[in-house]
Structure prediction request, 216 residues.
Amino acid sequence: MQKIKILIADDQTLMRDGLKTILELEENFEIIGTAKDGTEVLGLCEKESPDLVLMDIRMPKMDGVKCTELLKRLYPEIVVLILTTFNDVDYIVEALNYGAAGYILKDIEGDDLVKAINDAYKGSLMLPTSVAKKLVEKLSENKLIKPKEKKVLLDFSEREAEIAKMLSMGFNNRQIASSLFISEGTVKNYICNIYSKLGTSDRTAAAIEIKKIIES
Prediction:
């Protein structure tokens, strides 16, 4: 059986040791080390090449968001699963934009944590229902501002506006689908409509145009 090599990063010794104890009970997990801050994470990743980093978001010297950004730039194949007590939309968006595979809360049950790690390793986006709901509510609060050219976004539906904003923040189709509890096929259809209304077929160009509209 191929084991998933896991690095645990948390600034609290008790949390690190507790997670290590729980995860070592799983036959397909191998804990290759623990770290108390982002700088230690980067050093251990260089030496040990973990498959997955269980990353606390609030750490000294270098927090989990900044570490995720650097880690995914250096080692894009390493899966990063953010672990935190802070149900904060801004952190969620930032971490996902940098390539985190998901975001789980520290009050998660042990069995659910094991499942989340296995699912994230297989490529699933992990977002607790409470987090995903708050993310969608936040996006809904900040509705897209109608552009100078009224014909562009006047025709956007509420769901298209949500997806357009997530697209502008760097979310891929899988992340959008998981966050909004819809299929990737549905996301693709919405994005095709968005492209049509923006007059482009390029994702980057669409993201830039949406950002201009939001910031105008």
